[in-house]
Specification:
Length: 190
Protein backbone atom coordinates (compact mmCIF):
# COMPACT_ATOMS: atom_id res chain seq x y z
CA UNK A 1 0.00 0.00 0.00
CA UNK A 2 3.04 2.26 -0.25
CA UNK A 3 2.44 5.46 -2.32
CA UNK A 4 -1.27 4.71 -2.58
CA UNK A 5 -4.28 6.75 -1.51
CA UNK A 6 -7.12 4.83 0.09
CA UNK A 7 -10.61 6.28 0.35
CA UNK A 8 -13.29 4.78 2.51
CA UNK A 9 -16.90 5.73 1.95
CA UNK A 10 -20.45 4.68 1.26
CA UNK A 11 -21.24 3.55 -2.29
CA UNK A 12 -24.60 2.43 -3.55
CA UNK A 13 -25.83 1.72 -7.04
CA UNK A 14 -29.52 2.20 -6.36
CA UNK A 15 -30.57 5.39 -8.22
CA UNK A 16 -33.32 6.06 -5.68
CA UNK A 17 -30.92 5.95 -2.70
CA UNK A 18 -29.63 9.53 -2.54
CA UNK A 19 -27.61 9.26 0.65
CA UNK A 20 -24.21 10.93 0.07
CA UNK A 21 -24.88 11.42 -3.63
CA UNK A 22 -23.95 14.59 -5.50
CA UNK A 23 -25.11 16.27 -8.71
CA UNK A 24 -22.54 16.15 -11.50
CA UNK A 25 -22.44 17.30 -15.14
CA UNK A 26 -22.78 13.62 -16.12
CA UNK A 27 -26.33 13.47 -14.75
CA UNK A 28 -28.68 11.98 -17.36
CA UNK A 29 -31.25 14.67 -16.65
CA UNK A 30 -29.51 18.04 -16.88
CA UNK A 31 -32.62 20.20 -16.39
CA UNK A 32 -35.66 20.06 -14.16
CA UNK A 33 -36.01 17.84 -11.13
CA UNK A 34 -33.23 15.30 -11.17
CA UNK A 35 -31.83 13.02 -8.53
CA UNK A 36 -28.14 13.17 -7.58
CA UNK A 37 -26.12 10.80 -9.73
CA UNK A 38 -22.70 10.22 -8.15
CA UNK A 39 -21.60 8.95 -4.77
CA UNK A 40 -19.61 11.47 -2.74
CA UNK A 41 -16.59 9.18 -2.39
CA UNK A 42 -16.34 8.89 -6.20
CA UNK A 43 -16.44 12.69 -6.49
CA UNK A 44 -13.56 12.85 -3.98
CA UNK A 45 -11.62 10.19 -5.94
CA UNK A 46 -12.03 12.22 -9.15
CA UNK A 47 -10.78 15.36 -7.41
CA UNK A 48 -7.70 13.56 -6.11
CA UNK A 49 -7.06 12.03 -9.54
CA UNK A 50 -7.25 15.45 -11.21
CA UNK A 51 -4.83 16.94 -8.68
CA UNK A 52 -2.34 14.09 -9.12
CA UNK A 53 -2.55 14.35 -12.93
CA UNK A 54 -2.34 18.16 -12.86
CA UNK A 55 -5.58 18.21 -14.85
CA UNK A 56 -6.99 21.51 -13.63
CA UNK A 57 -9.67 23.79 -14.97
CA UNK A 58 -8.02 27.13 -15.62
CA UNK A 59 -9.96 30.28 -14.94
CA UNK A 60 -9.39 33.42 -16.97
CA UNK A 61 -8.81 36.58 -14.94
CA UNK A 62 -11.84 38.77 -14.31
CA UNK A 63 -10.32 41.63 -16.34
CA UNK A 64 -10.46 39.41 -19.47
CA UNK A 65 -14.20 38.91 -18.97
CA UNK A 66 -14.69 42.66 -18.50
CA UNK A 67 -12.53 43.46 -21.53
CA UNK A 68 -14.55 41.05 -23.69
CA UNK A 69 -17.79 42.56 -22.42
CA UNK A 70 -16.60 46.09 -23.23
CA UNK A 71 -15.30 45.27 -26.71
CA UNK A 72 -18.25 43.11 -27.73
CA UNK A 73 -20.66 45.62 -26.17
CA UNK A 74 -19.01 48.48 -28.08
CA UNK A 75 -19.28 46.57 -31.37
CA UNK A 76 -22.94 45.72 -30.72
CA UNK A 77 -23.83 49.28 -29.72
CA UNK A 78 -22.03 50.73 -32.76
CA UNK A 79 -23.88 48.44 -35.14
CA UNK A 80 -27.22 48.85 -33.35
CA UNK A 81 -27.00 52.66 -33.28
CA UNK A 82 -26.04 52.81 -36.94
CA UNK A 83 -28.92 50.54 -37.92
CA UNK A 84 -31.27 52.41 -35.59
CA UNK A 85 -30.54 55.71 -37.31
CA UNK A 86 -30.64 54.32 -40.85
CA UNK A 87 -33.55 51.84 -40.69
CA UNK A 88 -35.60 52.82 -37.70
CA UNK A 89 -38.78 51.04 -38.78
CA UNK A 90 -37.17 47.55 -38.76
CA UNK A 91 -34.76 48.21 -35.93
CA UNK A 92 -36.65 46.55 -33.09
CA UNK A 93 -37.18 43.25 -34.90
CA UNK A 94 -33.67 43.06 -36.35
CA UNK A 95 -32.00 44.11 -33.09
CA UNK A 96 -33.90 41.57 -30.99
CA UNK A 97 -33.02 38.79 -33.43
CA UNK A 98 -29.38 39.92 -33.42
CA UNK A 99 -29.40 39.91 -29.62
CA UNK A 100 -30.84 36.41 -29.52
CA UNK A 101 -28.27 35.03 -31.97
CA UNK A 102 -25.41 36.86 -30.23
CA UNK A 103 -26.37 35.52 -26.81
CA UNK A 104 -26.57 31.96 -28.18
CA UNK A 105 -23.28 32.36 -30.08
CA UNK A 106 -21.27 33.79 -27.18
CA UNK A 107 -22.72 31.27 -24.70
CA UNK A 108 -21.58 28.57 -27.13
CA UNK A 109 -18.13 30.19 -27.39
CA UNK A 110 -17.78 30.04 -23.60
CA UNK A 111 -18.82 26.37 -23.53
CA UNK A 112 -16.54 25.53 -26.47
CA UNK A 113 -13.50 27.16 -24.84
CA UNK A 114 -14.22 25.31 -21.61
CA UNK A 115 -14.67 21.98 -23.38
CA UNK A 116 -11.67 22.16 -25.72
CA UNK A 117 -9.12 24.06 -23.65
CA UNK A 118 -10.35 23.49 -20.07
CA UNK A 119 -10.43 27.24 -19.59
CA UNK A 120 -13.37 28.80 -17.82
CA UNK A 121 -14.14 32.15 -19.40
CA UNK A 122 -16.86 34.00 -17.54
CA UNK A 123 -19.20 35.16 -20.32
CA UNK A 124 -21.95 36.53 -18.08
CA UNK A 125 -20.84 40.17 -18.40
CA UNK A 126 -20.77 39.86 -22.19
CA UNK A 127 -24.23 38.29 -22.20
CA UNK A 128 -25.58 41.04 -19.91
CA UNK A 129 -24.22 43.75 -22.21
CA UNK A 130 -25.70 42.13 -25.31
CA UNK A 131 -29.07 41.62 -23.61
CA UNK A 132 -29.26 45.26 -22.46
CA UNK A 133 -27.84 46.98 -25.56
CA UNK A 134 -31.16 47.78 -27.26
CA UNK A 135 -32.78 48.94 -24.03
CA UNK A 136 -29.86 51.29 -23.42
CA UNK A 137 -30.44 52.84 -26.86
CA UNK A 138 -34.14 53.32 -26.08
CA UNK A 139 -33.32 54.85 -22.71
CA UNK A 140 -30.77 57.19 -24.29
CA UNK A 141 -33.25 58.20 -26.99
CA UNK A 142 -35.91 59.01 -24.38
CA UNK A 143 -33.37 60.93 -22.27
CA UNK A 144 -32.06 63.08 -25.12
CA UNK A 145 -35.64 63.64 -26.31
CA UNK A 146 -36.43 65.03 -22.87
CA UNK A 147 -33.26 67.16 -22.96
CA UNK A 148 -34.27 68.46 -26.40
CA UNK A 149 -37.78 69.45 -25.27
CA UNK A 150 -36.58 70.93 -21.98
CA UNK A 151 -33.31 72.63 -22.99
CA UNK A 152 -33.18 72.52 -26.80
CA UNK A 153 -30.42 69.90 -26.77
CA UNK A 154 -29.54 68.89 -30.34
CA UNK A 155 -29.03 65.21 -31.12
CA UNK A 156 -29.09 62.83 -34.04
CA UNK A 157 -31.70 60.82 -32.12
CA UNK A 158 -34.16 63.72 -32.03
CA UNK A 159 -36.27 62.89 -35.07
CA UNK A 160 -36.66 59.27 -33.99
CA UNK A 161 -38.02 60.29 -30.64
CA UNK A 162 -40.98 62.25 -31.98
CA UNK A 163 -41.69 61.77 -35.69
CA UNK A 164 -44.41 64.46 -35.67
CA UNK A 165 -41.94 67.00 -34.30
CA UNK A 166 -39.50 66.10 -37.09
CA UNK A 167 -42.20 66.41 -39.77
CA UNK A 168 -43.33 69.79 -38.40
CA UNK A 169 -39.73 71.03 -38.24
CA UNK A 170 -39.09 69.83 -41.81
CA UNK A 171 -42.28 71.55 -43.06
CA UNK A 172 -41.37 74.79 -41.23
CA UNK A 173 -37.84 74.73 -42.67
CA UNK A 174 -39.25 74.14 -46.16
CA UNK A 175 -41.78 76.98 -45.69
CA UNK A 176 -39.02 79.35 -44.49
CA UNK A 177 -36.95 78.44 -47.55
CA UNK A 178 -39.88 79.18 -49.91
CA UNK A 179 -40.63 82.47 -48.14
CA UNK A 180 -36.99 83.55 -48.36
CA UNK A 181 -36.83 82.57 -52.02
CA UNK A 182 -40.09 84.42 -52.83
CA UNK A 183 -38.92 87.55 -50.98
CA UNK A 184 -35.63 87.48 -52.93
CA UNK A 185 -37.52 87.18 -56.21
CA UNK A 186 -39.86 90.04 -55.26
CA UNK A 187 -36.93 92.33 -54.40
CA UNK A 188 -35.24 91.57 -57.73
CA UNK A 189 -38.35 92.59 -59.75
CA UNK A 190 -38.63 96.02 -58.09
Amino acid sequence: MKNKIVLLGYINYDPNDVEDKKFTPMNNKFAGKAIPDMNGIIVQANIISMVLDGDYIHKMPKWVAWLMAIVIGWVHMSLFIRYYLESHIWFHLVAKLAQLFSVIFFAYVGIFIFDKFEVKLDMKYTLYVIALAVDVIYFYEAFVGWLHRKYGYQTIFGHHHNPLEHATQHTNDHHKHETTTNESSTHEHH
